Each structure stands twice: as C-alpha cells, then as structure tokens.
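Chapter summary example.
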Amino acid sequence: MKKTQLYGLVLAGGKSTRMGTDKGAITYHNIPQRDYVYNLLDQVCDATFYSIREDQQTEFTNDNVIVDKNEFKGPYNGLLSAYKHNKNVAWLVVACDLPLLNIAVLEQLKQERDNTKLATAFATTESKLPEPLCAIWEPNALKTSVDYLNEGNGSCPRKFLINNANVKLVYPEQDQVLLNANSKEEYKVALQRIETQLTK
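The structure predicted for these 200 residues follows.
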C-alpha cells in the first residue's frame, strides 16, 4: 500500500491555562518552543503547518498556518481543522508542550509508521497508552474521528485511539522524551533534563 504524503502539524492553539503563559512561546532551545517543533517537523515531513487560534494570527509571519475552525473541542479542534485543510495526507501531529523531543525521536516515528493502521502513535513503556499529540494520523483516522465525535463520544483523541485496535504503538528509547510540560513545576523539570543532556 503506497504511503500518502506526510504533513507536520504543530499544535500551538491551546490556552495554556495551567502554565499561565503561552506554552508555544516558552524558550527551551533558544527559540520559542512552537518554532523549535516546527523546525523538527520540517525535517521529516513534506510540508509543515502551525495550528493556531484566530486571535493568534498577528503573531505569525509564516504563511503555513491553519486557523482553528472551532467546530470541535480540545486538541481535536486543531487536528480536524488540519484534516479539512487537506484530507488526502497523513498528519504528524505534535503538541508544543513536549520540550524533550528531538529529531531522532520523530525520525523513529516516521520510520515505524504503518499506513495500514488508523494511526502510528508514541506510547511510554510505563503507561502503554497512545500519545495522540505525538502521532501520525492517517487520513482515514481523521475521517473516522469526525463520525466518532458526531456520535457524541466525547472530545478526547486518546480515547479514540484506545478504543480502536487498528493503531500501532511505538515506544521511544526513553520515556522522558514524551514529558508534557503543562505546569510551572513540569517546566522546571524539563529545563533540568535539557541541561543534564547538554552537560553529558
């Protein structure tokens, strides 16, 4: 089965309520995190886009932005806005609150992609749960997601993946690369781990 093109999507439209400041604008690697993730995705994808809210448009000079259509709640808003932008490609979706990601991790996900599945998602060895916001969503997964949401199943993409057996899980060498930095405490943990890596 021929693989469809792979587009990258940086989910940068969240409200960052717990962090208290825009997570995409936080600097972990000398540039805003959303730009860092964009640059990583741009190395492994055929095209890359930012997923943003309408009120963020003035913050971006890059033309590759997809404005949320606000038809769905939560992360699905960005995911399905991207799907409506182009229904014929797979989307490698990465949240901007994963500061320990690096190019090797994304290359592993791309190499282990199984386009006969609905999605190829990272999972930690500890939880064995799919990480929907560091995953490759095939076109059919997003098409099926629309039906799933319209049937009133809630707006959690992780639950969608958990409830579908047709998903491939990929385990990184180190679980810590999937650290979600959603609070100030997690921000400090991420910084410490990055500093540790730089001093090795």
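To summarize the output: The chain has a mean pLDDT of 90.
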